[in-house]
Amino acid sequence: MAINFLQSTKLPDDVKLQFGDSEDLQIYHTGSNSFIQDLGIGSLYIDGSSVYIRANLNENAVVCLQNSEVQIFHNGSEKMATKSTGISVTGGVTTSSSSDLAGANMSAGIAMGTNAITGMADPSSAQDAATKAYVDSQISGVPQGTV
How many CA atoms lie within 13 A of 111 on its CB side? Predict the structure, then answer.
């Protein structure tokens, strides 16, 4: 059955548009909040050449660009985006537990506060960092005060 609307249709608060034999998809407004709910066993898909989730009419929150990146915003400013090479982060990164940054390229210093750098291998190149234990082993037997 097809219904053709030739003008806007108004529904009062708490009236639901329900789709599916078991009313699996519902769209409604409570008077305070608006909802799109998928109550079925499947997934809810939102498809489009570009998909925008906005905090208000002029402020993006999440933007999904077709065959490109996904951008995440805070207060209208992009903070993170997926790239073909990984992710790009604008601003600092705060974690609540240890993080693996293998392969990360840092463009600024890393403030460790009172935290230690642990799990380092012995240096193999001239620019590698060294642990205290490695340095101590290299200078053992060298008399103190000699250069």
Answer: 4
C-alpha separations of 53 from 40, 61, 82 in Å: 23, 6, 16
CA torsion sign for 39, 67, 101, 75 is negative
Burial 99-110 (b: 16+ CB within 10 A, else e): eeeeeeeeeeee
pLDDT of 78 over the 90 cut? yes
CB within 8 Å of 144: residues ≥ 6 apart = none
Q: For residue range 102-119, list pLDDT tens digits in order.
A: 777 777 788 888 888 888
Which pLDDT does position 147 carry in this prediction?
Answer: 61
Confidence check: pLDDT of 146 > 70 = no
What pLDDT, on the 0 to 100 scale, is given for residue 30? 94
User: Taking a C-beta distance cutoff of 8 angstroms, is the pair 89, 79 a contact?
Assistant: yes
The Cα–Cα gap between 133 and 116 comes to 14
Contacting residues for 120 by C-beta, under 8 A, at least 6 apart: 129, 130, 131
